[in-house]
């Protein structure tokens, strides 16, 4: 039985908490903190507005963008700024983007799952898999949550791929108290920051090599992200700082 099948069985049946946490790779203490914590007024307000935004988006068949949805919210008497509707963050751990891209090797494709903080442009978690599965994106999300010390009320933006719309993934997001934001089908620019990063990764690094196998690809991508991108690659949009530097000065 796969980890995803186990999670899907354990959650509805409310089995042993310790076993559930081990299978989902999350600390047991965090589980109890989560269920005993009461949401703040700000969190409740954000959850309410997120629901309203989703309802308006779906009611208009995904055609309306942020400005039109903002206008409809104002007409309904909601006091909300356009920036909140656009979900553009003003500090870290508010909005994350996630996506999967293909990495070629001589033994076939590898699949890179990435999560980036939209504010700092830092790759906060990544994983490379031999198959494009729900387990791959779950592992990446668990890594991101741990690396950022279990932040609250994060908005996670993704496309509508089957991995991200799966019941298992939605349950994990719910467990962490996260809001899921989707790109419209066929509109990858809605997730432009991460799409752009994957493009830079391939042009600047991956396409220089012909990886013999999965392990060689993994080691190469590890170097690019951990030894170069986060710590050495400067960004004009960050004032010519690296993601790690910008994260420190903006803390």
From TrEMBL:
Gene Ontology biological process terms in this record: DNA integration
PANTHER family in the record, alphabetically?
TRANSPOSASE INSF FOR INSERTION SEQUENCE IS3B-RELATED (PTHR46889)
Gene Ontology molecular function terms on file: nucleic acid binding
Which Pfam families does this UniProt record tie to the protein? HTH_21, rve, rve_2
Q: What does this protein do?
A: Involved in the transposition of the insertion sequence.
Tell me the ranges covered by the Integrase catalytic domain, including all copies.
85-251
Per the UniProt record, the source organism is: Lactococcus lactis subsp. cremoris (strain SK11)
**Domain of life, source organism:** Bacteria
Protein's UniProt name? Transposase
């Amino acid at each position: 039985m796969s980890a995803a099948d186990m999670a899907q069985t354990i959650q509805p049946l409310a089995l042993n908490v310790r076993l559930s946490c081990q299978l989902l790779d999350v600390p047991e203490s965090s589980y109890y903190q989560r269920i005993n914590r009461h949401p703040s007024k700000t969190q409740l307000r954000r959850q309410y507005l997120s629901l309203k935004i989703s309802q308006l988006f779906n009611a208009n068949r995904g055609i309306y963008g942020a400005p039109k949805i903002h206008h409809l919210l104002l007409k309904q008497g909601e006091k909300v700024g356009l920036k909140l509707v656009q979900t553009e963050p003003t500090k870290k751990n508010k909005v994350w983007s996630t996506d999967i891209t293909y990495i070629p090797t001589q033994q076939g494709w590898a699949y890179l799952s990435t999560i980036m903080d939209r504010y700092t442009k830092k790759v906060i978690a990544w994983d490379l898999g031999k198959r494009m599965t729900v387990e791959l994106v779950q592992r990446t999300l668990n890594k991101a949550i741990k690396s950022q010390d279990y932040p609250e009320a994060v908005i996670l933006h993704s496309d509508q791929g089957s991995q991200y719309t799966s019941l298992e993934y939605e349950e994990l997001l719910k467990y962490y108290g996260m809001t899921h934001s989707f790109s419209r089908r066929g509109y990858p620019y809605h997730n432009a920051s991460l799409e752009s990063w994957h493009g830079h990764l391939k042009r600047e690094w991956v396409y220089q090599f012909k990886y013999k196998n999965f392990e060689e690809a993994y080691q190469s991508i590890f170097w690019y992200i951990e030894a170069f991108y986060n710590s050495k690659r400067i960004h004009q949009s960050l004032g010519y700082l690296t993601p790690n530097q910008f994260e420190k000065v903006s803390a």
